[in-house]
Amino acid sequence: MYEKFGASPRELVLHAGAPAQYETRLHREINELDPDHLHLIFRSPSFYGPFHLIITTKPSSADRFCFKRVVASRHVFDLLWERHISHRVDLMGLLYGQFQANPTSPPASEWIFKLRMHQLLVEKQTLQLFPIGGHQAEVNLLYDNYTASRKRQDPMNLELVKSEQYLLAEKHHLQKNCYYLPKSKSFPAIDSLFLVHPPGEPLPILLVFQITRDEKDHDVNKRSLRKIDDLKLPPNTRKCYVVVTPEGVRPTITVPTKYLQNEEQQETSDSEETSTDEDEESTDGDREMSVDEDQDQMSVGNLFSVFHYPVRMAQLFKNEKLGRS
Question: Do 85 and 35 contact (CB within 8 A), yes or no?
Fold first, then answer.
């Protein structure tokens, strides 16, 4: 119950034998909440309201006499989002700014950023994706789009059509122009997938999105990349790993060389036909590959290009498309 609801010890004791009753009370509190007062619950500790199942008050890790008010759990936030926030762009922007300014509640601003991006990426628009360069370090490539030694390449502009969101099942047969949300436990470090075939592009393109506000190093999960091979993609699909951040956030991504294109391969992949050689899969999907396995050569068609998509924050919470950054 604590993991799902963020419940207090008192509530855990009272409802340990009947968690459904707790869920019923939580839904009632959320339904009775005035969305115009939602931001006041977090902004003012003196604001009174019977919303203790929604809000948790805790001492700050830096100062036990300084208290923070946060959404009780991700499950509770998702219920708030569906009931009050998802259709209110003005409320999204208000809460995002409030959470971002409060260093004690960073997860909530990250949740809002991701959920808002899911809404926008299914709209008809043109995305401007910047190639990320890299240098090799042991068995990984360190990708940084501000690497001084690398000449900045022109961005790739992709025209997207309006789509719908779908939940992704493992070994799913992906349909073109469908936006998929995978379960995080099945595809760690991947927030969504989008199979597109824009006008003027010779091959279909699989966009694999990692959406984050965090500027720290990001590791591309190898198990997730291997699972993408089970998704029954159209032949010769080009694969692009896209890190989505607010503009000004400069991500550094650590990736296994076995799955990511180096610069020479990236220049020739569009003109060369893919090899028929396939990567040998491990019988244990969760087993980490050895250094020798990571250095095995894969066909260009199985490799990913890496891109950065900086989002214009001035337009994130407006009822308009993001367009080009």
Answer: yes
